[in-house]
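Progress report, Aim 2. The chain analyzed during this reporting quarter is listed below.
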Amino acid sequence: MAERSPHGPIPNKSPHSYPQTEPKATPAFPSNDPGGHSPLSGKIRADLAEHGPITFREFMGMALYDPEHGYYATDIKRVGKVGDFITSVSVGRCLGLLLARRLVGFWEECGQPDAFHIIEPGAHDGTLCADILREARSFCPDFYQAAHYHLIEASPALTRAQEDKLGPILAGKFTTHASLNDLHGLHGVILSNELIDAFPVDLIRFEGGQWRQLLVGESQGGLHFIPTDCEETELDAFCQSLGTHFPDGYTTEYNPGITRFVREASAALEAGLFITIDYGHRATDYYHPGRSTGTLQTYHRHQKSENPLERPGEIDITSHVDFTRLITAAESAGFASPALSTQASYLTHHGRPWLLSLESASSAETPALMRQFQTLTHPAMLGTRFMVLEMQKDVS
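Predicted structure tokens for the chain:
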């Protein structure tokens, strides 16, 4: 169970639903199931009834990562057309192809060392690992020989999927780890794809001229939000840094996991490249007064749920990345030279030699790869939805 809120039980107030100003999406669940119950919701309600309200960060942590019923803890297929959402990896192997070529280029810039470690926190089922290493094996065998892939994944179900997918084709080229803390002082790259958006966040709301934290409470068999004072020092300091130039009811998120992540990444990587692919904004856009409902998103079978407290464990919960905070935290942890671009710009830049090579060396797979490339880079698809941050550490 996640840590307890320091507030203790708080008297119940009127339920506060999560604010929505966008047009209503097609419901993720049938309207005849207003309670939004799931196997995990009963466990959470019982815990709230006994111990009182918890932070949304604690709730989100349980909803996504509860060992028994968490969204990422089960064997249910979550990604792809038959799942809840698509990712750049699920589009096809083109992303891995292009990233492999970027890593080969960096390895060559570093003098082609005999050992090069690729560390992927949140490696999911190992698909990106397979795509990168198989492309490296055919494109640059010397790099493939030097490379060793570290998959960081806490979910036993996903770790089993990694072994099933990678074992028969890449034996000896990868190692699975439950935590980034298992690694120290390596040279190579830390590569994360849609990782930080799944870190549990705190929800805060500007009301009556002051910032309030939204807790999760229970009454009459349902879950609802309860606003209260921001008593945690770190969260209160963040709220104060935002100022007070916001409309009443303005709601946004604070992601405390960013600082811990970059510190662990810096400890794992003594020297090399830090690449993060995710959706997000710079701080000026993220906390614009017009973005009054924040960036929290929930999906089930490609449909939005209008309530992030609905059916915990069965819907995906994410929030966008504050890239300004991420860069600042990474610089404090020892990384430097930040370069932030859209996924379209990044992949087009690093994929230019490959694109040019297709003019004289196309294959039967080329049309499919070009369709994937278009999906990854087109502004109306994934090209501007995702950002890529690249930084370096102790690279001469």
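Residues 153 and 247 are 40 Å apart (CA to CA). The chain has two domains: 54-80+202-254+292-318, 94-198+260-279+321-393. These observations will guide the mutagenesis work planned for the next reporting period.
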